Amino acid sequence: MSETAPAERIFRVLAIDGGGIRGIYPAAWLAAAENRVGSIGAYFDLVCGTSTGGIIALALGLGIPASTVLELYKSRGAAIFRRRRWTFGGLLGPIYGSEILGQALHEAFGERLLGESRNRLCIPAVDLATGKPKVYKTNHDPEFHVDKDLPAWKVALATSAAPVFFPAFEMCGSDALADGGLWANNPSLVGVVEARRLGFDLSDVRVLSVSTGEARARMSPRAARRGGYLQYAPKALLRKLACLGLKGARTTDLFSLLISLQSQTVDNQMRQIGVGAYTRVTTDFGPEEYPLDGYREALELEARATQSTQEELTAVCKEYLYAPAQAWHERDTTAVGFTACGAATRAGCSSSGAQGR
């Protein structure tokens, strides 16, 4: 363990799920919370985010309000998820190009680097060229010196390059980076492991996990028994086939199934491993469908998220937002508390974690 934990051993983690344009839900939830308590990122020692959650995590670390990300999704979502016709629904290439998303992220983040984040960050991705998982990290540990000079907008593109939906992203010339949701769609455990590395016991760790909604991917029994490629193909391809008169049983795309199962599994594991506190902010879609690329459907999630914030924020404040955390690269051990969760106080940062080196 490379850092020494403080005497008051509390380490707060914000973990944000992946889920495509359904990122409107966590962005709206966090934006509504920020209306009450100020910058959400200021209250956490570590922020982890995967895919769309990685975009939000990077924004918070750079001091960009969640409302800015929400507006980006609402204003640019339709253009980002505009299908390329020649791909034939993902059969001949990625359904969407990454140019518009990249432009939007570049405009939002500018040339700011990962290492400029106020928060410690962990952003999962996958390098398809090596077949290995990858976690982009701020340089909050002496061993973490490679990623700090990477442009934040490029890290955002890497973590959100969902296979079939978007092309793999090339960061350094020999890699092929893809969506971290392939292995860590719910990055809560990534945050717990990082906290342990920094010297905190499980009982020291508090994790606020914000999902993109519980969209349990389901298949009809007939489709599951047949189980060929078309039964797991993205909906864009099935629509193309339907236009040709080829219709089959109700299916689910494989990527959506994988990330749904991964998020559910980690949620269950987090409830069992004995962390100091774990809160899952989510909404259950039930039989309704909110696909990863369903821009029109996802617009409805803003109202759901705002209502959820009103119902849950008081409890969240008591457990996680009682006082600002200390920025990992700061040496000052005091911080001015915000008033939304109680009277303003000037207190030692109880959840500061160990100092960056």
Describe this structure in words.
This protein has 357 residues and is α/β, with parallel strands linked by helices. It has twelve helices and nine strands. The strands form two sheets. Strands 1, 2, 3, 4, 5, 6 and 7 form a seven-stranded mixed beta sheet that branches. A two-stranded antiparallel ribbon has the order 8-9. Helix 1 packs antiparallel against helix 3 and helix 1 crosses helix 12. The longest helix is centred in the C-terminal third of the chain and has 20 residues.
For this entry, give a set of tags.
alpha/beta; two-stranded antiparallel sheet; globular; disordered N terminus; 357 residues
Short overview:
The chain has 357 residues and is of the alpha/beta class. It has helices at residues 24-37, 52-61, 66-80, 99-109, 152-159, 181-184, 188-197, 221-226, 235-243, 254-270, 295-298, 301-320; strands at residues 11-16, 46-49, 120-127, 132-137, 177-179, 205-210, 277-281, 334-336, 346-348. It has twelve helices and nine strands.
Strand residues, percent: 5-15%
Low-confidence stretches: 1-7, 331-357
Query: Helix proportion of residues, in percent?
Result: 25-40%
Shape: globular
The main sheet comes to:
7 strands, mixed
Structural class: alpha/beta
Number of separate strands: 9
Estimated radius of gyration: 20 Å
Mean pLDDT: 83
SSE topology:
Layout: E1 11-16, H1 24-37, E2 46-49, H2 52-61, H3 66-80, H4 99-109, E3 120-127, E4 132-137, H5 152-159, E5 177-179, H6 181-184, H7 188-197, E6 205-210, H8 221-226, H9 235-243, H10 254-270, E7 277-281, H11 295-298, H12 301-320, E8 334-336, E9 346-348
Parallel strand pairs: 1-2, 1-6, 2-3, 6-7
Antiparallel strand pairs: 3-4, 3-5, 8-9
